[in-house]
Amino acid sequence: MNFQKQITHWYSIHKRDLPWRATKNPYNIWLSEIILQQTQVKQGLPYYLSFIKEFPTVFDLADATEEQVLKLWQGLGYYSRARNLHTTAKNIAFNLNGVFPDNYKDLLSLKGVGDYTASAIASICFNEASAVVDGNVYRALSRFYGIDTPINSTKGIKEFKELASTLIDHKEPGNYNQAIMEFGARQCRPKNPDCNSCPVSNSCYAYINKSIDQLPVKLKKTKVSTKYFNFLVCIDKKKNTVIEKRTGKGIWQNLYQFPLIESNRSLKAEEFNLLKFENTILENSNFEFSLYNETDRIHKLSHQHLHTKFWIIEVDQLPQDSISIEKLKSYPAPVLISNFIDEFNFEAV
């Protein structure tokens, strides 16, 4: 059986009609690949369309402010992707005259572009035979060939890359790369793969040996930590509030949030102490506070779970750097904060 021909034939019949497949413009391909890192197509597609509408060229994206980029990215998560996207756009526009590198090696030099993204752009846009290896490819190859080397180990990464490189179609590398990624996403799914209609099931190790659920193998993740966040939602009589920009390194870098008190456990209303903030935000003001959500809202990230509470603080007057509640939605914020802003009735306070 010719694995490559079977996969590309399947792709010619079953591929989805996606906007970035109608072009070989490296800007569009790069944008789509960055958005689709850690993101499913159905979630990423609206973001791709919004970015193309707002920033139709790399020059438009480069000319945007970081806040504009982060705001448009809001809700997609892994915000370092957005910051790297903006940095790379400026590099290409201002240092490379708007011209993307045309080969795998040079594409790797772009911030936010790793092995997978460089291979995708090089093969789709420039017909370079550089094999992509993403989660979908790992899954399809490990099952078909019966490879139990952990896909997130150094040995596994090398082994699967070498195998993928031997399989790639040198005449149409971009088409083959998209075919095997689509095959893994839609046919050889993580759970309940459609083996009965699979074009390669008769030669698939996992199907023949009933080991589909055991492959691919992945090393256990690092331990997820738990944090307790208390956000202070201050509102004064002029309907102003206070937000702060996260400047430290982290997934929410340069996003906005309400002032934060971190605790070592979930706090009840009678345990909450605002003294820490009385000399700053609430300086020389009378205030009353109440707990908005008695049950913690749990926001799950890849490396930590955030148990959050929102505290509503009614105050006579806030500092001069406060903002009108009407402007809140114009600031880029983590989805946790954005959802609260959408839900809470500020006017009722």
TrEMBL record:
Keyword Iron found: yes
Cofactor binding notes: Binds 1 [4Fe-4S] cluster.
A Pfam family this chain is assigned to: HHH
EC number per UniProt: 3.2.2.31
Keyword Acyltransferase: no
Keywords noted in UniProt: 4Fe-4S, DNA damage, DNA repair, Glycosidase, Hydrolase, Iron, Iron-sulfur, Metal-binding
Family: Belongs to the Nth/MutY family.
Record's function text: Adenine glycosylase active on G-A mispairs. MutY also corrects error-prone DNA synthesis past GO lesions which are due to the oxidatively damaged form of guanine: 7,8-dihydro-8-oxoguanine (8-oxo-dGTP).
Protein name: Adenine DNA glycosylase
